[in-house]
């Protein structure tokens, strides 16, 4: 199997040395999953990446803002939630560029304004799911990066801003799997034993950090900035393909979000990068077609941390420019390989990709890292 390392260093070498290459990563992406003695290399056939820092119009992206009301009657809490477009904002400007999910401080009709987006495709099965997020320090919200099929097949990384304590550097992330077991306990994952807390080795409100979960058969591993946090195993691990979502909300419930926040609270998502096996038979067939023999095909190794400092490791370099220059179609920066799965233009050395490198200042980063 031809292994093309996609870390910045070898990527730079590959880019500079190769004259022209066919589309690479046709056979997929590999990454180490697990921890300690259980580390193993997993292969995923498809990629879906979005650089929200260059998404000016969510409509043109591979994501959909969710618009619905969750009233307090349905969930017996202090407040309901109003999920609207007004709480999902695209911002391409400044150091905090990215998708903003806003929780409002004003309660209207007993509803707290909240933000949620879902990727359009719904075929995310086993995979490595990564998002770069800056959280709000305003107490009273829940920020979540999660995978969902239905109420009994769900993987959550949930951050409660009221639990962040700078005085003792305590920054927990709540890890939850919803399963028939948690349903039997009224969706109380704590009682069902499918909830755990891990502590982040940094203040998640001080800047962007990459949160990641690797969902593989029978186990889900969780990471922050490439560092292993914890894992969940057992019958609660999902067994189907599903959706990928992010949200930021408050319902005032003292035992969970608290709040609503005193000031509008913003969660900002810089990017989402996912490498996964599709649950769609069509996409599986496409992979078989572009990768008839994995021993002869091209596989790209993923870095454990998708982005560090200024280095960027998107597989589709056009996404660095917002995806609007070369292809023209599907602008808005989503490099969502929705139609052609693992294909990556990123490995072709073309004048335009060099231009992208130059225009994003990556060359100096490459040189300093060589
Ligand atoms: C993903 O799918 C490929 C192709 O079917 C398979 O070889 C690989 O083992 C799968 N990965 C995981 C982690 O199950
Ligand atoms: C919300 O935005 C979506 C597109 O992102 C659009 O289709 C929909 O009509 C909008 N809804 C409202 C109520 O404006
Ligand atoms: C949600 O509630 C708000 C405030 O009461 C209302 O204006 C809006 O129409 C509702 N939206 C939906 C989708 O029911
Ligand atoms: C969720 O989906 C699984 C798999 O199809 C199914 O067994 C389960 O009953 C579903 N749960 C709910 C709450 O619908
Ligand atoms: C940090 O301090 C807060 C109270 O200020 C407390 O609730 C929390 O449990 C502490 N965290 C740890 C990990 O000790
Ligand atoms: C690269 O990104 C562009 C724009 O987002 C998209 O149209 C194209 O299909 C992508 N190409 C590959 C090979 O993923």
Question: What do you see in this structure?
Answer:
It is a single chain. This protein is mainly beta and 370 residues long. The chain has 2 domains: 8-45 and 279-367, no CATH class; 50-275, Jelly Rolls. The chain has 6 helices and 22 strands. The protein has helices spanning 8-17, 180-184, 189-192, 281-290, 351-359, 362-369, and strands at residues 2-5, 28-33, 40-44, 46-51, 63-65, 68-70, 80-83, 88-91, 98-103, 107-108, 111-119, 124-134, 142-150, 153-160, 172-178, 195-199, 209-216, 219-224, 227-233, 243-249, 265-278, 298-301. Strands 5, 6, 7, 10, 11, 13, 14, 15, 16 and 20 form a 10-stranded mixed beta sheet that branches. Strands 4, 8, 9, 12, 17, 18, 19 and 21 form an 8-stranded antiparallel beta sheet that branches. The longest helix is centred in the first third of the chain and has 10 residues, at 8-17. The chain starts with a strand and ends with a helix. Mean pLDDT is 80; it is low at 1-22 and 317-370. It binds 2-acetamido-2-deoxy-beta-D-glucopyranose (6 copies). Residues 67-69, 82, 108-109, 111 line the site of one 2-acetamido-2-deoxy-beta-D-glucopyranose.
